[in-house]
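Lecture notes, unit on protein representations.

Consider one protein chain, 120 amino acids long.
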Amino acid sequence: MADVNRLVYFVLVVGMAASTALFAVGLALTYAPGAEPTSTVDLISDLPGLIEGLAEARPSSILCFATLILVLTPVARILVCALVFLANRDLRFALLSFVVLSIIVTSALMGVLLGIKPAA
């Protein structure tokens, strides 16, 4: 029987550590002597540009990816909970976790597909 608390703790710590490390690298590259000004990255419409920027170690892409990891960490937590509850045959909590996950995914997809962006 898998312990949901340990797995969720692991997911949250790894997500937080990875995003923190990437933020530190991105900020260090941004403010390094001789650093060139960087452009912003639109994660939603320019995913290939983000990947290209990561390959070129562009600070704006690294910072954007760190933000993406930070935002997706709680989503990963819900997915881990759902899978652990399912493995433990706790179907009520597994179903509840999948419902919450589907609401989050549906909301994100609607935002992307309908072109809804935060106010500037």
